[in-house]
Amino acid sequence: MNKSIFEKLIWSIALPGFGQYLNGKYLKGTVFLVLEFLINIQSNFNQVILLSFHGEISSAINHAEYQWLMFYPCLYSFSMWDAVKDAGGGKDPYSFFPYVFTAFFVTVGVIYSTNLKLLGVLFGPVWLPILFAIPGVIIGNIIRKVVKRVQPVVEDDLPF
Length: 160
Description:
2 strands; about 0% strand
């Protein structure tokens, strides 16, 4: 991954839409940015993050609006994938797998964050989803490699 592509990925992690702005996709970037603010406000995510950082996991769980919070993983993952793809990093037609599986695992982490304990510790709606991103990235990359090996890409089959 070259520096330009990596930079757009990092900016998309910082705030969905920023990678699209760097790619010159202003309408798309604005849509992602508006969605990020909408979901952030509706889910009380800033308060949840603050409480989680202070170790007040039970309060964070009580303040979270889970119906909105579950949109975050998909928004972030799609924004990151889209910024990387538009920057020229999506040459591999299976490059979406790590992003899809990360979104899935992080969403599962959000769903179980109210009652799943790891090593006897309740991590809550911020830390458990972050931990669940790790197996999502790993499994997504494994599946991407397996699919590439099973079904090799032919240049004529690429949609772009």
